[in-house]
């Protein structure tokens, strides 16, 4: 059995992977909050896409491969199959997106939350082991089933908590604390799954195919850039207090809670409505008797 080193560069890669998971979680929670305040299906879909990319693409996928930069196996180089690596990205983003759609459609309930957590957690685990299957090295991969099951359980619990937080957390401090907790959960799942891995070396069978792990820095950086842009956009698009007050007033008018609804005109104590009709076609000019002037 080959010797495995998960921290070839010391604590640099796990620290950066944790930072990525926290950053993606913050962005995802902020964007998920915009889903609740969206006024149309198009806006909800847009914010849902940004939240799915932030959580699935940055907090989970980019974190995974950042941690893999510090992964090494004695006696062999490691390369990654590009199509499988891309598939792992799609799995992570799609799993989070579908989970958000499950819990975000209609009223949040325990059934929706559990269903979304199970689906998303299974997707996160599938992303992890798809990324591991993308590795090309001079050896055969083996897994401890008990630890694999534990990693899947952690993924499901972490996904369920993440979906619940995405639908309930609103304030900045709560979002920050939640992101720190989510970062611990995501990294815990990753390194639990990695601890289940063993590599049985075999003789070199020729040149390894695929891309080197250093080449993954480019998509990782792009994931972070798009995530940060999404966060900035979400913050700029946040409704102000005036926007909320205006929306509440319009809703009250539609419900008939304020004058002006149900076809009844609002009070006009100073006669502004009458003055606004002067000069319009068909409107007679008021006489001195009408205006009270002498």
Which labels suit this protein?
mainly alpha; 294 residues; 2 domains; two-stranded antiparallel sheet; 3-stranded antiparallel sheet; elongated
List the helices and strands and how they pair.
Layout: E1 4-5, H1 12-37, H2 41-68, E2 72-73, E3 79-80, H3 82-104, H4 110-133, E4 135-136, E5 139-143, H5 145-168, H6 172-195, E6 197-201, E7 211-212, H7 217-236, H8 241-255, H9 272-276, H10 288-291
Antiparallel strand pairs: 1-2, 3-4, 3-7, 5-6
Overview of this protein structure:
The chain crosses the membrane at residues 16-35, 47-72, 84-103, 110-128, 148-166, 173-193, 213-236. Residues 257-271 have a biased composition (Low complexity). Residues 257-294 are annotated as: Disordered. This is Signal protein. Residues 9-200 form the MHYT domain. It is elongated, with a radius of gyration of 28 Å. The longest helix has 28 residues, at 41-68. It folds into two domains: 4-238, no CATH class; 240-280, no CATH class. The strands form three sheets. A three-stranded antiparallel sheet has the order 4-3-7. It is built from ten helices and seven strands. The model is unreliable at 268-279 (pLDDT under 50). It has 294 residues and is mainly α. The protein is 66% helix and 7% strand. It starts with a strand and ends with a helix. The chain has helices spanning 12-37, 41-68, 82-104, 110-133, 145-168, 172-195, 217-236, 241-255, 272-276, 288-291, and strands spanning 4-5, 72-73, 79-80, 135-136, 139-143, 197-201, 211-212.
